[in-house]
Design goal:
By secondary structure, this protein is of the alpha+beta class. The chain has helices spanning 9-15, 30-41, 43-49, and strands spanning 2-8, 19-23, 61-64, 67-68, 82-86. It has a five-stranded mixed sheet. Helix 1 runs antiparallel to helix 3 (43-49).
Length: 92
């Protein structure tokens, strides 16, 4: 199945792209697929996405088709889904 990943804020910089289409196996879940992408890409992208234990950072905002995916949730993806990933935003 093909899924589109969209990256925002610092995650976009680490990914080196705003969006990419990725071929995933049936049954893949959003956070698991993101972790695999981060491990494969390495570098800044991996450091922004994964914590020291190799888990997707809890402060990242992950959406599937505009709906939030909680840290403890395994949201199974379907062909054509869009996963959006936001780094935390600071400001004042």
């Amino acid at each position: 199945m093909k899924v589109t990943f969209r990256y925002f804020a610092l995650v976009r910089k680490g990914a080196g792209t705003e969006r990419e289409q990725v071929e995933l196996p049936d049954g893949a879940d959003a956070r698991g697929a993101l972790a695999t992408l981060a491990q494969e890409r390495g570098g800044d992208f991996q450091r922004q996405i994964l914590d020291d234990s190799g888990t997707v950072r809890s402060n990242l905002i992950v959406l599937v088709n505009g709906q939030t995916v909680r840290q403890d949730e395994q949201r199974t993806l379907a062909d054509g889904d869009e996963v959006s990933v936001f780094s935390p935003v600071a400001g004042g």
